[in-house]
Design brief:
Number of helices: 11
Helix content: over 70%
Number of strands: 0
InterPro entries: TM_pro_TauE-like (IPR002781), TSUP/Inactive_protease-like (IPR051598)
Main location: membrane
Number of domains: 1
Strand content: under 5%
Radius of gyration: 17 Å
Structural class: mainly alpha
Shape: globular
GO cellular component, one term: plasma membrane
Family: Belongs to the 4-toluene sulfonate uptake permease (TSUP) (TC 2.A.102) family.
Largest sheet: none
Order of helices and strands: HHHHHHHHHHH
Keywords: Cell membrane, Membrane, Transmembrane, Transmembrane helix
């Protein structure tokens, strides 16, 4: 019975995170990391490595669901993914060698800054008045480089940084930006997972159970993403980041 409960909790958590990840285009890993650290007693590195096991199959399915509803240029998606790979490994190497509390605080600081920037834009203007910065398309590979670095350092991040940059900088719709961000996650996540696994910072059983639960609810989350107004989706995205940062700070201070 105890063994069954031990298996059920990661499955249920994965189902919840899969729905949230599909709704917000983040793969669920950004929420999984603090939950694994606080609820399962994992170190920051082990939580990030374990979350990567869940992220890969979940984001593949989520990307496919987004692509079915909002086709996007695959050549651009591939370019972003390749750029992300260039910065993933050095960042992942740094992550496994940092002090766990330092890494957690860096993670929380990043999330707070991103959330405040993202939320400020939705509150400062009415939804119809939000305009892009009109960045030149040649700057788009920079989104991949930044995303790859964050993905390697924190186990997540490519989709997080891609969505607001693609919306604010290049004027893409939120749902399309989230789909492209998801596509960037997979190649970098494979490389990051290999680095964390080499450092023995992965709980494979828990990660696999999280992935199985998430696969069951990803499609539902994506479907809801296309029913909500875009400005509400942006606010939900920012509020989730703030809540996650609070959990990470609590973990770091407690440890």
């Amino acid at each position: 019975m105890e063994f069954s409960f031990a298996l059920a909790w990661p499955l249920l958590l994965g189902a919840l995170l899969g729905g949230v990840g599909g709704l917000l285009g983040i793969g669920g890993g950004i929420v999984a990391i603090p939950v694994l650290a606080l609820g399962f007693g994992m170190s920051q590195q082990l939580a990030q490595g374990t979350a990567l096991v869940m992220i890969m199959p979940n984001v593949l399915l989520a990307f496919w669901r987004y692509y079915q509803r909002h086709p996007m240029p695959l050549a651009t998606v591939g370019l972003l993914a390749l750029c992300a790979l260039a910065t993933t490994w050095p960042a992942a190497w740094l992550a496994v060698h940092l002090d766990s509390r330092v890494l957690a605080l860096c993670f929380a600081t990043f999330l707070i800054g991103l959330a405040l920037h993202f939320l400020r834009g939705t509150l400062r203007a009415a939804p119809a008045e939000i305009k892009s910065a009109g960045w030149h398309p040649r700057l788009m590979p920079g989104v991949g480089l930044a995303g790859g670095f964050l993905s390697g350092l924190f186990g997540v991040g490519a989709g997080l940084v891609a969505a607001p940059l693609l919306v604010r900088g290049f004027g893409l719709r939120q749902a399309v930006a989230q789909g492209m961000g998801l596509a960037m996650v997979v190649p970098g996540s494979v490389l990051a997972l290999a680095t964390f696994a080499q450092a023995q910072q992965v709980d494979w059983q828990t990660g696999a159970l999280l992935a199985a639960g998430g696969m069951a609810t990803i499609s539902t989350g994506v479907a809801w993403a296309h029913r909500l107004p875009e400005y509400k989706l942006r606010r939900l995205f920012a509020l989730l980041l703030l809540a996650t940062a609070a959990l990470m700070i609590a973990r770091a201070l407690r440890g």
